[in-house]
Design brief:
Blueprint lengths: L2 E7 L5 E7 L7 E6 L9 H12 L2 E6 L11 H24 L3 E6 L1 H13 L4 E7 L12 E2 L2 H7 L1 E6 L2 E6 H9 L2 H5 L6 E5 L9 H9 L4 E5 L10 H15 L17 E4 L6 E4 L4 E4 L14 H24 L6 E8 L11 H4 L5 E8 L6 H11 L3 H7 L13
Parallel strand pairs: 3-4, 3-5, 5-6, 6-10, 10-11
Antiparallel strand pairs: 1-2, 2-4, 7-8, 8-9, 12-13, 13-14, 15-16
Helix pairs in contact: 1-8, 2-3, 2-5, 4-5, 9-11
């Protein structure tokens, strides 16, 4: 997806490093992802979830908390309250950009942070909250710290190891963490909530999900991430969580009905990225793009892919309709299509005038499936392929009329 790297200034004056994943087409809502304890915005869960949300038309911001990744500040003295402050600043940034309530998504301790932030921000700024493997008590994360915490509280700071990485933590960090009463804050939460948790999570047990669910008000949902580990290191687990959140969240986003719906024909609208373009029919929407090799983001088929698809799908439908009308044992077709931009040099049925021009061709190979058709039936079905409506349009006297509308 198109990604923008940016900076957000917190209330304390330092900057947070952030990445904004933009939909290729229209923005139907906006979201913010909070990463796990000592992780960064580049974690697998963060990238998978935000990019899946962007594919569904939801702009998705992920940030490095204070002192982590590329963000400024001192992680060792920041504490959980600072994470919440970072989220509040990031939500305000997203609302200023997209003018709508924000979906909050949090992973592990980031899940606890979005719950705390949502209870402060309220329904005017938060559309919904989704958590992944979140603890029900914030002091639980202290169990993952290797070091002499009593010594740190006595002398003011000290060296610890978290997830194999070294940090200097302050006594203030430990004090702020121990003071958080997340379940009390849950009683003030008045937004739709989805809790996702693995029953085999070895870092934050699934009993935490039960406590959060019991404390929350409706509407609330629970989704089991059976078999997943805490960090969602398996791509399938991360993608599953992302797809479920994206599908669930659309229900609560203010801009979900903004898509143009033409009564007839197609509407095409420029999107984000270099070539990203969104296509709307009266009942469907999809994205067109160019591959990365051409400077695009590869979020959808290319214009020529769509041209070939139009010919191929119309061919398949026409052949099936004919065979069904004849009640022949037609089991389907497989059609391979390619586009040749330099066909003039080997064209054996072009006029001299054509050969001097830039002659292009669409090449179609048709495989009829099944063994019950006779040779005569097969020949007739292949003959009918050339009579499909799109084929006739492409080979007919086609004129394209362009009219400027709107501004003079």
């Amino acid at each position: 997806m198109p990604t923008e790297n940016l900076k957000i200034t917190t209330a304390k004056g330092h900057t947070l490093a952030a990445a904004l994943e933009l939909p290729t087409g229209l923005v139907r809502g906006a979201s913010l992802f909070a990463h796990c304890f000592t992780c960064t915005k580049q974690s697998k869960a963060a990238t998978a979830v935000t990019r899946a949300l962007a594919r569904e038309g939801i702009a998705a911001l992920r940030v490095d908390f204070t002192g982590l990744g590329a963000s400024e500040g001192d992680f060792g003295s920041a504490g959980f309250a600072s994470d919440v402050e970072d989220l509040v600043a990031s939500v305000d940034y997203m609302i200023a950009q997209f003018d709508c309530p924000i979906l909050l998504v949090g992973h592990s301790l980031g899940g606890a942070a979005v719950l705390a932030a949502a209870s402060i921000l309220g329904r005017e700024k938060v559309a919904a909250v989704a958590t992944i493997g979140a603890p029900s008590d914030v002091p639980h994360v202290l169990h993952n710290i290797k070091g002499d915490l009593e010594e740190i509280e006595r002398v003011g700071e000290g060296q610890v190891t978290i997830g194999g990485r070294s940090f200097v933590l302050s006594a203030e960090f430990l004090k702020k963490t121990r003071e958080v009463e997340l379940l009390d804050q849950m009683t003030r939460l008045r937004v739709p909530l989805m809790i996702m948790h693995s029953p085999t999570d070895a870092i934050v047990g699934v009993e935490h999900a039960g406590k959060l669910f019991d404390a929350a008000k409706h509407p609330k949902s629970f989704v089991s991430l059976a078999g997943a580990d805490h960090l969602l290191t398996n791509d399938d687990d991360a993608n599953f969580a992302a797809q479920i959140i994206a599908a669930w969240a659309v229900r609560y986003l203010a801009n979900k009905d903004m898509s143009p719906k033409p009564e007839t024909g197609v509407v095409v609208q420029t999107g984000n990225g270099k070539f990203g373009t969104e296509v709307f029919t009266s009942r469907h929407r999809f994205v067109a793009d160019e591959p990365a090799s051409a400077g695009g983001n590869d979020t959808g088929p290319t214009p020529y892919d769509l041209l070939l698809a139009a010919l191929g799908t119309c061919t398949a439908m026409t052949m099936k309709m004919y065979a069904d009308r004849k009640q022949w044992p037609f089991e389907g077709a497989r059609i391979a299509l390619t586009h040749d931009r330099d066909h003039a040099k080997d064209c054996d049925h072009c006029s001299d005038e054509d050969v001097s021009a830039n002659v292009q061709s669409l090449n179609r190979k048709i495989e009829l499936l099944g063994d019950e058709l006779t040779a005569e039936q097969r020949a007739k079905i292949i003959e009918i392929a050339d009579k499909c409506p799109v084929h006739r349009t492409l080979e007919g006297h086609l004129h394209i009329h362009t009219e400027a509308v709107g501004h003079p």
